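Example record used in the benchmark description.
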Amino acid sequence: MFDSEVQRILDFVARGIGVRVVGAPGSGKTAVVNNVIANLEKTGVAVHFISGMRTHRGIPFSAIKGLGLDMRPGRSGVFDIADVFAAQLAKPGKHLMVADDIHLVDNESLAVLEAVRRRSDCPMVATAPDTWAFSKGQLAVLNQGREAHLQLDPLHYEQVHMLIAQVLGAPADAEATASILTKSAGNPRLIVRIAETASLSDLLVLKDKQWRMTSGSLWNEHLRGTLEALLSELTAEEFTALHIMAILGTARIDILQKVVSLEILENLERRGFLSVMNDHHSGAIAAISPPVIADYFRGQKMLRDRHLLRSKIAGILETAPQTTGENSSTSDCLTQLLAGLRLEKGDDDAVTARHFHDHNAARERTRFERWEGNKTAANAVALLRTYWGAPVNIQRATRVCAETLTADAEATDMLFLTITEAMLAIHTGRGPGAAVEILQALAATNPEYESDVTNAIAFLTASHGRIQRSGEQLTEDPDSQSGMRNLVCGLLELYRLRPDAAIRAVEGEGDEDAFPHLRPFIRGFAMFAAGRVDESLVFALEWRAEARRNLDQFGVVTSSYIAAHGLLYRGNFEEAEYLMSSVFAMGRPGFVVDSLYDAMLRLAGLRHATNVVSPAFSIAAQAREDMHDIGPLPGIGKGAYELIAHSSAQPATFDRKATKLIKRQLKSGYVLEAMMTALLCTCLCPGRPVLDLLQKILRESGITIHDNLLAIAAAVVEGDHQLLGLLLKHYEPDPDTYQIGMLLRGALKRHVVEGDSVAADALAQASSMFAVRFPSANEQLSFNTFRTTPLTEREIEVAVLAGHRSNVEIGEHLGISARTVENHISNALRKTGATSRNSLFMLVGNSLPPR
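Model output (structure tokens):
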């Protein structure tokens, strides 16, 4: 889990720089240090390890005596011990001091360390909590010599997925992964303990090679000891404050301050037990972090002060008044939005997800109780609308559809109720046929709905099978108030890759829409399909920010799907993966957007699929398996992901499989998906059959924005290196700049695999020149299916410089030793099977330009 952090520490230590590793309790500090020690001891470095312990911090010299120094009788003072320790550090060879949990080291041992550090330039690696207020003695030890700072942040969704797979031997499904992330707040120790104890308690069971939850909770008595250790440093007042917060749940700060002093709240926030965030409706709100602590308090059966606490806060438990906030201002500056997204990465996904869960659960419960009291169509629609975005209670949804009184229902309510019932039939596995029958039954008994029903059937048929021919017209009813025709027309035009027609179909605000989120979704994704990537990103990120403030899970999922495509297209993989991770942390959404959730799982696994990560452990394995290979939107069908994840080692075989898939997509009428598949395959492994299909699709759709990419791809495929050179020389940046870089690297690797060294040399030169003209700060997606073992991030960095620089130059550029560079190159040659530095460079590609 911590390979990159370990490598960074090793690089610093190799340069004689100490490292302070900080993070929350359980964040993995000791695991990182132990890994560093193991790596260094293999290379002959003498590691002197000191460990701070809570039970020993009051015992003089307890930590330093753990080194087993050979002391003379009667000489046990600070300077006596320092003399012996310094003498050991002066012995020939490389040395490293490690102080794990330096905040728990006794004062006398700290005094020895201070004296030793003044006499020796040996680097030190120390670990401590990130919020710890260091004493003067601790700072005296830490602030000697050069020191780097390494922060261990909470894990995000995909890292949690991988950690669970490592601990339990098999991956967990999306619901279990999201629940463990939410409860642990991304804390590695808690993730491991929750997963282990849940499997021991049969709250997680292995089914179909995935761990799945057997109930709605993961709390079990085996977790008690872990939580007691986590809370052991709290004062009595802080412990009581957390208990009060567990009773209150997520609460406004002004309400919380009535029963907990501001000083205590500040202490809890500083120590990481309290998360504060802004809510669009309620202002600043606070919640316990990690959320499993709240389960610990709520799970106590015999606490004497529970009734006293409840009496104390009885007058505080009131519904927070709702305030109307202003929508976010429109911004056309993508740079600012991306900067905001990067800042958001520092937020706690788990706490945000918990806030969404609490809001959705409270809203669903209130609306269900209102419907039970009065089973009108209006009350039913209010409840069912929550299930379009938030998780579905199948039993309640089915009951509402069956028992709602529709005699005096409004037309829009009746239509929404029936379409929701049809969607529910698909969601519960009855299939599109049952959904169509439900809609047809409405039209048979209510002829006035015939137009809207026809349009709804067209939408369901197109979204779950194949699209109707372009010449077929949707029915129009001038008396309809639902806006169904325009929405369905826009979706169908989007599926057919006619983005301009899709945008025209959904012009206007659509205030009368029965399905308000579909109009902006069509508009935003149509802009992306038309090649207006940056416009689409701005639109989607602003919509997502507003949806997060409104606690609107439907809006968050749909806007994130659009934004993820835009970010991936621009090569912003870090931002895209965080954005999708924040969606996954909320758990599987309602039945209307669950297909987009599965699509994002496949998109998130796409980069790892190109790097030959085992498909069983890829995050994409959490997507539903019962999906078709093709779908109306990119990623909804699993064909493209399966093609890349299970591709043959031979480019010709890849061409044949890709061509077959694209033709199937076109035959079903899903032209947009076919275009995106052809574009991706062309950039990863350019070949004539797929390029011909891509050119034909774009020509027939009237889309010209990719003409430069097509011309360059044609020159690459035809081997016309002179024309390629001219095209690249006169190329100016456009939306496909990142894709062209991918295309050149994909062609380079293809020629290396096929053994065409002349063409490979030409492509290596062209790719290098392009990288110099258009340097990218983003990681370059590269098809590594043709090698058996993926390289680490550091090995790739070294390999891309190996064709231009010596080991010493590479070491100076990356801040590591020449010996470390030599080891990386040796490992990379072994993994790839390359026979020289130049062939290694050509195989890896030049993702970093020479300087």
